Amino acid sequence: MQSGPRNSAHFFINAATVAAELSVVLTEAKNISLEAMNAKALVARAGDNVRTFKPITDFMVELANDTIWLVKEINREALTLSRNSLADLHSADAHERFKKAQERSKTAAFGDTLDSIAQEASNRHHQQTMQLRRHMRKLFELLDEIESRMLAANVVTATSRLEAATAADSYQASLEGIVVKLEKAANRIKHIASKCRHSLER
Amino acid sequence: MKVVKLHESRSHEWLVFGRDEERPSKIIDTNQYMIKTTNHAIMLDPGGIELFSAMLAAVVHHVPVQQITHLFASHQDPDIISSLGLWDKTLPHAELHAPWLWEGFLRHFGCNSIKYNPLPDEGKSIRLDEVELQFIPAHYMHSSGNFSVYDPQAKILMSGDIGAALLPDGAPLFVEDFDAHVDKMRLFHQRWMPSNRAKKDWIRRVRQLDIKYMAPQHGAIFRDRDVVRFLDWLDELEVGTGIA
Ligand SMILES: [Fe+2]
Ligand SMILES: [Fe+2]
Known about the structure:
By secondary structure, chain A is an all-alpha fold. Chain A is built from four helices and no strands.
């Protein structure tokens, strides 16, 4: 796990970009949700013919809901992180400027009156950095979670394929269609999640 | 940063900070002022963010930083007060006197702890220990909400951007040759000042004051007779020339 941004000057932009990219994931998750509805309707119509497909549609609904929730969480966290890293940047800047004033006023009669202020700025900067790291960790955890959901989705698509293959001929094509769409959506989400991770690690 | 004492009496001191050698070259040079009374100090147009470290370092040669209880911003420009966010961290208990017109705007620089004391259009006076300071309306000179500061005891008028001159690095802090100085001021006043009516109004107000030093935020300080010469020169000058 990444402990902190390497280049905080660009980090707040990256974090904001992550939030923007996630809107695509949200669309995909909504697609999964839609497909799950179709699948449910199909399963209800087909009755016993595709009974084994029922748990799969349930899983898809759950997956879609979880993903939507996670994306919203990540989005919120990414925006907080962006704001945080900007605050971190400001506090680092203030810290630097106070330090510089301290260095330049070494011989000043009242130079020592700056000490507590400079110290305060340094503490504030430290706190900001710690907070940034906390939010960062949280965001990576959420990305981990979304990725592991998508891995689970891959396992389920593999099982679903087998189920679809054994279903009655008249339903086979529809079921396979659903499986393909689920797979595509899961892969796209996985791809975006890892892209987000990379841009945060940059 | 160069520091010059403009006035010293039992009750207070006026200091000018300027001509910072470490100033990045593309930043307009500015004069910052501080009035130090028995228990307080006020900084007038404390300057831009890029100047903050140098200013803070220079100031503590003269006062403990906690003694600075007041700030004044003649208007909203970045060279005047973009350091506000850092002063806010330095002096959380201080008060900022600035035009009411700019409060919502100036707060963008960061003003979470410092108390914003909005100056009404007609101006007002404050007292720091035994010293009275008058905030004289200077609206549209050049900013639409703008004030000069007058100290009747020391007879100093801090005129903000009025009287500003664009001078080469290392130029003297006082006007030495008024006629030569005019060339360095003309463009600034013609182009930055928008209104002849506002100009007349400010001149009328200022002519009533007894002024020994007129201290602008850029360029050089006017002494004695040069103050009147400046007012006469400005009176004649056509301003607001940006419109072709
Ligand atoms: Fe200005
Ligand atoms: Fe200015």
